[in-house]
């Protein structure tokens, strides 16, 4: 199966939220499909980057939500990258991550993201793609969970 990655539309958000809400990532933060859909809708309304991965036979299977200049006013910020569980390991995450970086151009401050301290698979994924852990924010999103700060410098063009 080959997924198409493109900007999300308002009409697709309920199906996207329903496909992703069962993920342990969103369950850990007590986000159901309605709350997730509302967050995605807010992103579209604010003009933030919201890319959808969709497959013809499955519908929405992944999302990439980002700000082109969200960190320290100069760095791009990957807010959410999530893939439906049955499509994880298919290379789709790498494609969405590449789409995020391409969609942000070459931000002076590089590329930033947060990942939960309990999400070891995500940490390994980002490290494989050139991101390095540069800090931690204890209790940032929810009590008892540290959000780990990952950063990838922008490519220096000569």
Tell me what you see in this structure.
- The chain is an alpha+beta fold and 158 residues long.
- It has one domain: Gcn5-related N-acetyltransferase (GNAT) (Aminopeptidase).
- The protein is built from 5 helices and 7 strands; from the N terminus they run E-H-H-H-E-E-E-H-E-H-E-E.
- Strands 1-2-3-4-5-7-6 form a 7-stranded mixed β-sheet, with helices on both faces.
- Strand 4, helix 4 and strand 5 form a beta-alpha-beta unit.
- Helix 1 crosses helix 3.
- The longest helix has 13 residues.
- The N and C termini lie far apart (38 Å).
- The mean pLDDT is 92.
Instruction: Write down how many β-strands occur, each being a DSSP E stretch of 2 or more residues.
Output: 7
The side-by-side strand order for the widest beta sheet comes to 1-2-3-4-5-7-6
Query: End-to-end distance, in Å?
Result: 38 Å
- Full CATH superfamily name: Gcn5-related N-acetyltransferase (GNAT)
Anisotropy-based shape:
globular
The proportion of residues forming helix, as a percent range, comes to: 25-40%
Task: Profile the largest sheet.
Answer: 7 strands, mixed
Strand content: 25-35%
> Can you count the helices?
5
| Mean model confidence by pLDDT | 92
Keywords:
alpha+beta, Aminopeptidase, 7-stranded mixed β-sheet, 5 helices, 7 strands
Q: Concise description?
A:
This protein has 158 residues and is an alpha+beta fold.
SSE blueprint and pairings:
Blueprint: E1 4-7, H1 13-20, H2 24-28, H3 33-45, E2 49-55, E3 59-71, E4 75-83, H4 92-104, E5 111-116, H5 120-128, E6 132-138, E7 146-152
Parallel strand pairs: 4-5
Antiparallel strand pairs: 1-2, 2-3, 3-4, 5-7, 6-7
Helix pairs in contact: 1-3
